[in-house]
Amino acid sequence: MDIAMLKNILTRFGGAALVLIVLAVAFAGVAGTIGSGNVGVRTTLGVISSDEVTPGVYVKWPFISTVREFTAKEIAIDVQDLTPKARDNLSLKDMDISIYYRAEAEKIAELQSKYANQSARDEGSGIWLPAQGLVVRLVRNAAYEEVARVDSLVMHTKRDDIAEAIRKSVQAELEHNDPGVFQVTRVVIRAVVTDPSIEESIRAAVANQKKLEAMAIQTEIAKKEADIRVTEAEGIARANRIIADSLTREYLQHEANLALLKFAEKGNTNTVVVPANMSAAPLISIPAKGN
């Protein structure tokens, strides 16, 4: 409200307007509001009240007490520029993590008493984040511990496993210190950047793995082809055995007799069949010339 507007109001409404203005200014100085999903923590003469200020309008006591608005909603915190060492003693170049957690609304005043210096004020909204510093510290410690369990060459394939391990570790630590107060909903590893030399080793390892997979496939194909050849050979050998077993002396003599019969049926023929076991030379009548 500028000076010209204030003069206009006073001219039109006189003293009544002045009283209303004074009351409005006074009320603004002694009243505040807490948004839905948040709670207030009152500090009176340096002492933090154990009862949270619920959402809605509350009374201020200028120069005596202050009220800070804390969120009881899910909070997202980014923990960046971590450089933990892997199990093979090689350090990551950069690791960025996001953690999502929330604190129980009816426990936030108690948290503020216990971790007064650990809370942080959100620059955008002006609302305070309960025990934010504590959570960040636990995330950093858990990240260094979990990364130390994994070799750097396979780090890029274990992101989800590492994130879940960090979540469980942070949740367990918070639960140990403040049972039933915190809930860590999820952890996301947004970036894992290894040393360039490690990156080259990873690429080489992946290439070698692909070669091994290709060789395994080729070996399997060769094995199958060999199995097929063995099966075919066994089938041929079995067929030959069956044929050999069926060729008895009587059967062979029968076949020979049938062949001789065919020759005999042709009548005039110049073919002479001599049995293999014949001991005497056959008598062959050859017609004289001119006959």
Describe the structure.
The chain is of the alpha+beta class and 291 residues long. Helices cover 47% and strands 20% of the residues.
Strand order of the largest sheet: 3-2-5
User: CATH fold name of the largest domain, please?
Assistant: Tetrahydropterin Synthase, Chain A
Total domains, how many? 3
Largest sheet: 3 strands, antiparallel
Low-confidence stretches: 21-28
What is the CATH architecture assignment of the largest domain?
2-Layer Sandwich
Proportion of residues in extended strands: 15-25%
Report the total helices.
7
Radius of gyration: 49 Å
Give helix and strand order, one letter per element, not per position. HHEEEEEEEHEEHHEHH
- Relative helix content: 40-55%
Highlighted features:
291 residues, single chain, 3 domains, 3-stranded antiparallel beta sheet, alpha+beta, Tetrahydropterin Synthase, Chain A, 7 helices, 20% strand
In short:
With 291 residues, the chain is of the alpha+beta class.
Write the layout of secondary structure elements.
Blueprint (H helix, E strand, L loop, with lengths): L2 H11 L1 H16 E4 L3 E7 L2 E2 L7 E4 L5 E7 L3 E8 L11 E10 L4 H7 L5 E2 L6 E2 L2 H16 L11 H19 L4 E12 L2 H51 L2 H17 L26
Antiparallel strand pairs: 1-4, 2-3, 2-5, 6-7, 7-10, 8-9
